[in-house]
Inverse folding.
């Protein structure tokens, strides 16, 4: 099979066996607000409940976005069918604001009703002269990430456009509350999962980042569409009181994950085809591309092109995923 066609057929989303996402919308995504995130910020002060709010549960995520919550460790909790969630000493509520087109937002109180934290999505503009719109903000899960006995929230802000645009926050419910992560992800509703990739009380965070390889079609490199642009694992570690990108530091853990994905594809060959581009990225991150490439990419023509771009791709992965 020609190498270009092999790449176009390869999976390029969160895990080796996941289906490819739906095609992107034809219209351009909304322009992001040129401001910092005021509500989930490092010193977000408690605020009283707004008068124009309801208690309806937020809308479900689009069908093409696979939620990682089915793999959420038991130490963490997430919303069920109720818009109310208890997490340690706190009560989380998923509310909607009637004054902002019923966009969902998050409120946290103590069990006695004392306000602890509240945040709404940022505003953005869809074009000059158009009314400003507000992003949705959802609490994905809650639990003690840092091992200090105080839970953290994983919040996701999004524009609700097809595939776009996502920002993930981690907010600690200390007094005062403070932000441990703000990741302007952009495309891809992959979610963020707490994982233990090294010994210790703290958890790491695992997600996937859509990255365009430094290809040149004119030079003979593969042609990629949106649906076949690969997603690579990204790991955040708690360093200096903040969650920072440190994917390359977890090569051994990612090698185990790669083997698990390969085994899953071997067990389900009719449902799964390993992505050669994902295998390429794994090899560059783990550091064993030279040893793995012949088995991972049987097509000699494609393998040659990936070798040509390997150094540039590794630099790009280090920049995007963190050393």
């Amino acid at each position: 099979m020609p190498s270009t066609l092999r790449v176009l057929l390869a999976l390029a989303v969160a895990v080796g066996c996941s289906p490819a996402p739906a095609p992107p919308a034809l219209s351009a995504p909304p322009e992001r607000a040129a401001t910092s995130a005021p509500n989930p910020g490092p010193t977000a002060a408690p605020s009283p409940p707004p008068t124009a709010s309801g208690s309806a549960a937020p809308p479900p995520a689009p069908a093409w976005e696979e939620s990682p919550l089915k793999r959420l460790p038991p130490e963490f909790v997430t919303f069920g069918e109720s818009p109310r969630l208890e997490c340690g000493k706190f009560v989380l509520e998923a509310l909607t604001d009637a004054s902002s087109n019923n966009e969902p937002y998050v409120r946290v109180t103590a069990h006695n009703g004392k306000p602890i934290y509240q945040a709404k999505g940022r505003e953005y503009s869809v074009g000059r002269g158009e009314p400003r719109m507000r992003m949705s903000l959802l609490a994905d899960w809650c639990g003690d990430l840092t091992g200090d006995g105080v839970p953290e929230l994983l919040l996701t802000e999004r524009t609700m456009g097809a595939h776009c645009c996502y920002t993930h926050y981690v907010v600690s419910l200390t007094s005062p509350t403070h932000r441990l992560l703000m990741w302007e992800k952009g495309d891809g509703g992959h979610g963020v999962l707490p994982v233990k990739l090294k010994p210790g009380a703290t958890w790491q965070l695992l997600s996937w980042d859509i990255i365009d390889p430094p290809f040149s079609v004119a030079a003979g490199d593969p042609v990629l569409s949106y649906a076949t642009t690969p997603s690579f694992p990204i790991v955040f570690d708690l360093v200096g009181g903040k969650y920072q990108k440190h994917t390359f530091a977890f090569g051994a853990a990612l090698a185990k994950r790669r083997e698990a994905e390969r085994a899953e594809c071997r067990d389900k060959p009719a449902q799964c085809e390993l992505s050669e581009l994902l295998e390429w990225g794994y090899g560059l991150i783990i550091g064993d591309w030279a040893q793995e490439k012949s088995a991972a990419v049987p097509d000699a023509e494609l393998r040659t092109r990936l070798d040509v771009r390997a150094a540039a791709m590794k630099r790009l992965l280090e920049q995007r995923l963190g050393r």
In short: The chain has a mean pLDDT of 81. The CA atoms of residues 11 and 18 lie 7 Å apart. The first helix runs from residue 3 to 9. The chain is about 20% helix and 30% strand.
